[in-house]
Write a structure and sequence with these properties.
Structural class: mainly beta
Number of strands: 43
Radius of gyration: 30 Å
Helix content: under 10%
Shape: elongated
Length: 648
């Protein structure tokens, strides 16, 4: 687990020195709503705690903007609050997450000043241990993955089971932890009671926990089933290389004992065969062969529990150390600043290897780059490196959307080495002629488009796309007039050049106000749908589901339903797509996301307000109730922009 706090970016060119290896990266467009979700890719090192991605933290400052309010882990608005910075641009929003900010680095591209620590592993289960006896010891590694040194650190164990986990309080406190440096904390499991036990290990600076590891184990009583020796230490082994030791399990009772086996800890690093344990007769002994094959460098600890039921539990503790290299990238993060559509943004990164002994080497090297960032010439993939060696990457591409702040990771990995992750950010924005509203229909006694594009609607009544025109019906309330739909009445908005724009930008958003007349009966009622010439379901739709009484947004066969039932009165419903992720917002607040495998392809069919067209031209799914304020965009709206649409 990791916690991340953004600070105001430092001015360019204040960055870390660049040695030999070059990694050139730049922002790029994401095309098509759908496809593989890779913006928060799993890191290569499964114990690294980076699988959370970069969530929360608000946004970095933009031109004349403000640093966004905190947003903690997984986008919760929790962590630090930034101050003002820059000269010109909008304010960052408080939602955290990938879209959690507006604008870019006010001083142009440069490194991000980040306070960040991660712990490996993010959680550890010690398995079984004898009550009131010293059990297994696990070394947890804390790494400074931010861009500033960390001082004043303190380690502590907290929680109801804290007395069963012993740590050295002075660990990691002797000196400031430099950028990229690590410190180790040994945790020993000493069960104080029989049964499940849990606590958490915190690395703190002051009152703030920079990284937290979850600890667990179970206290058991010793019986007549025994294991000898009670622990096996494999010593130091190169990552990926095997070493085998043996232990003997003995039934000391006068009756046969069926034995079940449970493993805990770094189970991927220890393999064993238990074929002789199916049913131990009285006095029988079974030899178990255990192979240690470290999957990562550092302390590897596991336990095997042999449960003999009434004969008790025999616990075998396993330990060893993996030896290997460490991939390092400088700078560890980079903000590309603001990049307009068609512009390029480039940066050189340096990759080095450390931590190896003798003639050992790591590799082959692999590189994973998420959408929005791409690489050109590749001089590292497949290469093996020894201490001090480096390799080079170059890339440079133009931005085409989606627009807003994107934060993600570039991951590097190599056999027999600890992986590395580079935090990158880019703020992409449309130019003066793109990325704007492409249609706005107020429905105030008119189906006219109030945007400059003139996409005027036509009132229709009937169940086919070519149904004859009919005067649209309107009703009034204290907020003014609105479209009143019933009896298969709907509005057809003919296709146009501006409405085809999503076929090239790959991102789209729609928002409108809705007041359903009823949620009884069966059906999926579409207040809005936008389809291509092929396919049974719209590429983008908004409506209600009866009789569940829930809002939905859809893309192809993917339907994303609201978490709460529809309440009475008017409600603002929005659908956004950033190129692959469909998001639902209710009254300005996010309410879920999905990953549909569809894309906008020209030519598009007319927009239908109040129903959806099928593949044969029939219109179904008629909406009954009030609609007003439909707006379409050829880009993905950030959470703050959706909130702004709701507040209008």
């Amino acid at each position: 687990m990791e916690l991340l706090v953004h600070k105001i970016p430092v001015p360019y060119p204040k960055f870390l020195p660049l040695p030999k290896c070059l990694l050139l990266v730049s922002a790029v467009a994401w095309l098509g709503c759908g496809g593989q979700k890779v913006d928060s890719m799993e890191p290569i090192d499964l114990d690294s705690g980076l699988s959370d991605g970069l969530m929360g933290g608000g946004g970095l400052a933009g031109s004349a903007g403000k640093v966004g309010h905190g947003g903690g882990l997984d986008g919760d608005a929790a962590a630090a609050t930034g101050g003002s910075s820059g000269s010109g641009g909008g304010a960052a929003n408080a939602d955290g997450g990938i879209n959690g900010g507006q604008g870019g680095n006010p001083n142009g591209p440069g490194p991000m000043e980040i306070v960040k620590a991660v712990v490996r592993p993010a959680s550890f289960d010690f398995g079984d241990g004898y009550s009131s006896d010293v059990g297994a010891t696990k070394i947890l590694e804390f790494t400074n993955q931010g861009t500033v040194p960390l001082d004043g650190l303190m380690a502590s164990v907290e929680g109801t089971g804290a007395s069963s986990f012993a740590v050295d309080p002075a660990a990691c406190t002797t000196a400031a932890l430099g950028v990229g440096q690590s410190c180790n904390i040994s945790v020993t499991f000493r069960p104080t009671a029989v049964g499940p036990l849990a606590s958490s290990l915190h690395l703190k600076r002051g009152a703030t926990s920079l990284a937290v590891a979850a600890l667990s184990g179970r206290g058991v009583a010793q019986g007549t089933l025994t294991v000898s020796p009670a622990s096996l230490s494999f010593g130091s082994i190169a990552v990926g290389e095997p070493k085998t030791l043996t232990a003997k399990i003995k039934n000391n009772s006068a009756s046969p004992v069926p034995v079940t086996v449970k493993t805990s800890g770094d189970t991927m690093d220890f393999k064993f065969n238990t074929s002789c344990l199916a049913n131990l007769t009285a006095g029988q002994e079974c030899t178990v062969h255990i192979a240690f094959v470290p999957t990562d460098r550092g302390s590897r600890v596991a336990s095997i529990s042999f449960d003999g039921g009434a004969a008790g539990v025999a616990v075998l503790n396993l330990s060893g150390d993996g030896e290997g290299g460490i991939l390092q990238v400088n700078p560890p993060s980079w903000d590309f600043g603001s990049v307009q559509r068609g512009q390029s943004a480039n940066k050189e990164f340096v990759v080095n290897v450390s931590g190896l002994t003798g003639a050992n080497e790591v590799g082959p090297v692999l590189l994973e780059v998420p959408p929005g960032f791409t690489l050109g010439a590749d001089g590292c993939t497949g290469k093996k490196l020894s201490n001090g060696q480096s390799c080079a990457f170059t890339a440079g591409v133009a931005s085409g959307g989606p627009f807003g702040v994107t934060q993600t990771y570039i991951h590097l990995r190599a056999a027999k080495a600890r992986s590395a992750s580079v935090l990158v950010q880019a703020t992409t924005s449309p130019d003066a002629t793109n990325g704007r509203v492409i249609g706005e229909w107020v429905f105030d006694q008119s189906t006219q488009d109030s945007s400059p594009h003139g996409n005027h609607g036509i009132g229709v009544q009937g169940n086919t796309e070519d149904a004859p025109s009919a005067n649209a019906k309107y009703a009034s309330d204290p907020d003014g007039y609105h479209l009143d739909l019933a009896e298969q009445r709907w509005v057809r908005i003919p296709t146009s050049q501006s409405l085809r724009r999503p076929s090239t930008s790959g991102a789209i958003s729609a928002a409108l106000w809705m007041r359903p007349a009823t949620t009884r009966g069966e059906g999926d009622d579409y207040a809005f749908s936008w389809s291509t010439t092929a396919g049974e379901y719209p590429q983008l739709g908004i409506g209600i589901i009866r009789p569940e009484g829930r809002w939905f947004v859809s893309a192809g066969v993917t339907m994303l339903k609201s978490s709460k039932p529809i309440a009475s009165g008017w409600h603002h419903v929005a659908a956004t797509c950033d190129g692959y992720t469909l998001r639902l917002y209710i009254d300005g607040q996010p309410d879920g996301e999905a990953y549909p495998a569809v894309s906008f392809k020209s030519p598009l069919r007319p927009v239908v307000v109040g129903g959806r067209p099928t593949a044969d031209g029939t219109v179904v799914g008629f909406f009954e109730g009030g609609l007003r304020g439909l707006r379409l965009f050829d880009r993905n709206l950030a959470p703050a922009e959706v909130q702004d649409q709701f507040s209008r």
